[in-house]
Amino acid sequence: MDIASRPAEPEQNPQTADAAPAPQAPPVIRREDYLPPAWLVPEIALDFDLGLDATKVTSTLSVKRNPEGNGASTLRLNGDQISPVSVRVDGDAANDWRMDGPDLLVELSGDAHEVTIETALVPSGNSQLMGLYASNGMLCTQCEAEGFRRITFFPDRPDVLSTYSVRMSGDKATFPILLANGNCTAEGEGENGTHWAEWHDPWPKPSYLFALVAGELIANHGTFTTKSGRKVDLNVWVRPGDEGRTQHALDSLIASMKWDEETFGREYDLDLFNIVAVSDFNMGAMENKGLNVFNTRYVLADPDTATDADYDAIEGVIGHEYFHNWSGNRVTCRDWFQLSLKEGFTVLRDQLFSADMGSEPVKRIEDVRILRIAQFPEDSGPLAHPIRPDSYQEISNFYTATVYNKGAEVIRMMRTMAGEERFRKGTDLYFDRHDGTAATCEDFVKAIEDGAGLDLAQFRLWYSQAGTPQVAASLTQEDGKAVLTLHQTVPTTPGQPEKQAMPIPLRVALFDRATATHSGESLIVLDKAEDRFVFADAPADPVLSINRGFSAPVAIEMARPDADLVFLAACDDDPFARYEAMQSLVVQHLVAAVGGGLDEGQRSAGRKAIGEAFRAIVTDAELDDLMRGELMLLPAESYLAEQLLVSDPGAIHTEREGLKAWLGATFADELKALHDRVSAVPYSREAEARGARKVKTQALVYIAAGDSAEGASRGIAQYRAASCMTDRQGALMVLASLDCTEREEALADFLARYEGNALVIDKWFSLQAGSLHPRVLDHVRALAKHPEFRMSNPNRVRSVFMAAAMNPVAFHDPSGEGYRMIGDIIRRLDPINPQTAARFVPSLGRWRRVEPVRAKLMRAELERIAQEPDLSRDVREQVSKSLG
Ligand code: 0A1
Ligand code: ZN
Predict the structure, then answer these.
(1) CA 716 → CA 518, 664, 708, 728, distances in Å?
(2) Which of 128, 144, 209 to mutate to test the pocket of ligand 1 (most atoms within 8 A of CB)?
(3) 702 partner at 20 to 30 Å CA-CA among 204, 526, 762, 870?
(4) Could you give the ipTM of this predicted complex?
(5) Catalytic residues
């Protein structure tokens, strides 16, 4: 029997046993240590005997020695919390294998062999949601980054590409639908109510792109014909009952396929494309070849249950995963340090797609807002890392805003410098050169360099240096010419005490104050620590518009008269620059106020300038409402905190709320008129109506800040009149922060109305946990005890605790209770789902940038977590870096 081949006690290699790391210090994986694999696996056949509580996996690997490898006779197959039931080599029970920690090592004598391994899994017990797991009665997989090793033993690294053949069988009533990558090649009935299916994926792929789904599912079906005439069947699979909420996802998929052909010349390469929505998922979605698995959140939508923002997010994520078919799947990553190769590029692609589907300037503003809220703090904190990191302990911790969003900004800069057409030549060359291979960031840069004709020698620093460059700007007049002096500093970050100057492409224009025009925009590149740029034919008294379109992901430092910012907020022809001027006006004022640097006169002068710009935004009949809604947003508290070395979150909150209330009270009539106007616009998905809805809630936010009674009555009126989730959620968000009876009425109605709809109930939780209500901490405690709260469901956990961690009122409560709550959730969640638990650590990790009393409490929470004896590698890495 096969099992007899298993040694009684797995042999321990004394050397590795000695070197085994202490549990306190997980091994560090370094980019510079990369070695090609010793063995390749050109083919793999997987056979799954499926069951929710017990699944048997038989995997047959055709392995061959890699001519570029080190010639080792040992085949290392990674595993994680699995053990082999049997191991055979070339059909015979093998004796020559042993375990090395979680990995299986097999000694092989020749150059090519067939290795067959059996494993036994318990999907229903898999709460980490990595590998094969049960969700809502179905089975599904998640393999990126290192989940395949939880299914079977395999060289689980992205540079081992294999052709997959999959057979699966299981109870037909439990698993009526059986899906895997590629095409279904055969199916049939088995014994005792079982059935089976065989799938084959012709495209070699790394193990992280493997997927399998089995369960009771129903599809919304569509088709797409590619530009060369391939007819592709499209399916969006969901649980029965959800099919009425899948059309937007299907439409977004079709739009993505068309867009990628037109914009990047990329065509789909299989006859079938399946999307499956699952309700338990650690991230947003996953680009498995031909079988994308999605968090239900990024699939299900109808006007009654999803907001306009949800619709946009679905379109963006569907696009993102689809675009991975080329940027990620056809050309994959050599190792996980190259993650930004696929993620940064794919984020850029999904941003450009969404911009083309909607409003380009609004999309740009949104993307920059996200970068500033999520990535800037990361880049200035203890977890800062370059977009191509040099080392990690747990790769799951590197799916970050830096790798994704800053990664996209870095590639966007190349596009800005090359221009669209030349950039396209670069990407064409990249796809041509590296199709079917596992590539590096360096390969990408080289292809853009060669294809677009750019010199990117110095630009490569953007891949290796962390930290957001700070650019100090000043404009002077010399001999009738305007001189722009720029000085850059790249802050020190962990492990990188010294930095070199980076090339920073800046789009600039000099406005004539009298005519509110400029004579053309220029692109300048600051590639030294300091440089001067002379503008010969500048107007006499110019106003500088700099980093237009946010051409570089940097912080511009320039003390500017309010009048200049008011001018740009009103007159700049670059919509991003208008937004930026408004933001700067507010940031400058609030930062001074928080620092206690404003006397009453200065405070009222600052408010007057902001008020002038705000009134123009609220009343400008020329402005479209989508843009108006964006311009009305005050800078986030986390972005304000970024401007200060050490800040008092309480003071930031008070000042920002104070300004909001002042604007609400001062412009009450204008805001009410605006709220009335947009409330009369009937529901549609057109831009105009979406803009009206965005402004409606924005106006309500200010009205409520200025006059809470008016806010409560308009809020409940908006709630009751709502014919869609955007209006209903907007009203509930405002009411949730008020201490009034209308709040309770709306919350109770919402819960009853949407009973059984998990995604909407998530909103109910997060609106309360994210509210500015003075008793928000009590509310969060109660929510965690609510019968609908589930620790096993990441969406639900995030809806309560991520909302609370991101909510300055809850998180930074002076008592330290907010920190304790997040510390507790990390400790409680870690044994269940370490990946999701680790995502809460960065909020506490910002302690050095917070005033000393709170900083001490935050640090104490991290220390309390660090004392837990069995922390996961995920949480351990984040906590130790945050303390270190
Ligand atoms: N590649 C996916 C992100 C992803 C990464 C890890 C996961 O494991 C839980 C899931 C998804 C993307 O960029 O969409
Ligand atoms: Zn991605």
Answers:
(1) 47, 18, 12, 9
(2) 144
(3) 762
(4) 0.99
(5) 321
